[in-house]
Design goal:
This protein has one helix and 22 strands. It has 327 residues and is mainly beta. The protein has two domains: 165 residues; 116 residues, Immunoglobulin-like (Sandwich). An eight-stranded mixed beta sheet has the order 4-1-13-12-5-2-3-9, with no helix packed on it.
Length: 327
């Protein structure tokens, strides 16, 4: 009799315990409670998927040494999550810096309206984005202001701009170049707005290329160097020689390409020929408005004896077309 009562008591206790446990487990069909998040992965589409383009990516297929995986060669993915506030503006609530495209994921709150912005930086033809080391990881200053750790964090210092970043000084890797209007790097930007309710597990962003390219060609150019500069601080001075002029090109980022397909205003590009003896001969200068995703070819003619200045001719070649500028 005592054994029977004991068994009944245990069975009753277990039944209550199981019933209580079942009630503590939320119904999977019910909406999540306020404050919860859902993991969402980001898929990048658009210009960033282009595999062939008249604007080169700055690397030669057979250049084995050029393919060495230096730290500054890594493609950087900067992600911003912004919340639409009751005051009517977008406020950054978290950001992250990645170099692994497969790691692009965010924990999106289940309530509210959000904007996701992704900026992609590539070294392109430049010396690379300047960084320092912080707690054993690469840290990128303005405008990224973040540590490369392949995850989102609660910081809000990353700015939605592709202007003002620092580049390594090619002559001194411990320092960086001064700021100019258009830094020598390649980049993309995309954004999308989502409402938390019904957010898909994968969100696609149409990435827009934020770069323009410059290439030179020259008749009678058999010695010395050609120098290109922009007097208003638009770009860092660039140089080519007879040996590399056919293969050399330069890629620059333009922040205004986020809202338009040409630079805000023309750049005054000045071309100078440096003779083998070091003397300088002005070739000409011209104001050029550069276009998004377009390779502008600047054609010049080295002057004959007695000639000092000639007018440049410029043509442009789109990544979906071509234009040329002659000096």
């Amino acid at each position: 009799m005592r054994s029977t009562l004991l068994l009944l008591t245990l069975s009753f206790t277990l039944a209550i315990s199981c019933n209580k446990k079942d009630k503590e487990t939320p119904d999977p069909l019910e909406p999540p409670a306020s404050g919860e998040t859902v993991r969402t992965r980001l898929r990048l589409t658009g210009d960033i998927l282009a595999t062939e383009s008249p604007l080169p990516n700055g690397r030669l297929v057979n250049d084995v040494e050029g393919y060495a995986r230096e730290l500054r060669d890594s493609t950087l993915y900067s992600v911003l999550l912004q919340e639409h506030t009751s005051w009517g503006y977008w406020q950054t609530t978290s950001c992250g810096l990645f170099n692994n495209r497969d790691s692009l994921a965010i924990d999106l709150p289940v309530e509210g309206e959000f904007r996701i912005i992704v900026q992609v930086y590539k070294r392109g033809t430049g010396p690379g984005l300047y960084y320092t080391w912080k707690n054993g990881a690469q840290y990128f200053d303005e405008p990224i202001n973040n540590t490369l750790d392949n995850r989102m964090n609660n910081g809000n210092k990353t700015r939605d701009t592709m202007w003002g970043f620092r580049l390594f000084d090619p002559l001194d890797s411990a320092n960086y170049l001064g700021l100019v209007g258009y830094g020598e790097a390649d980049g993309y930007r995309g954004e999308t707005t989502v409402t938390a309710t019904g957010t898909p597990s994968i969100i696609s962003l149409d990435m827009k290329r934020m770069s323009f390219g410059v290439q030179f060609s020259a008749a009678n150019f058999t010695s010395g160097k050609l120098h290109a500069s922009s007097g208003n601080g638009g770009i860092h001075p660039k140089s080519v020689t007879p040996e590399n002029i056919d293969d050399q090109h330069f890629i620059f980022l333009a922040n205004e390409f986020a809202t338009q397909d040409s630079t805000y205003g023309p750049l005054n590009v000045k071309i100078t020929w440096e003779k083998p003896d070091g003397s300088m001969v002005p070739i000409g200068e011209k104001s050029i408005t550069f276009k998004r995703n377009v390779l502008t070819k600047i054609q010049v003619t080295i002057p004959n004896t007695g000639r000092s200045i000639i007018d440049p001719v410029i043509t442009e070649t789109e990544w979906s077309g071509t234009e040329t500028v002659e000096f």
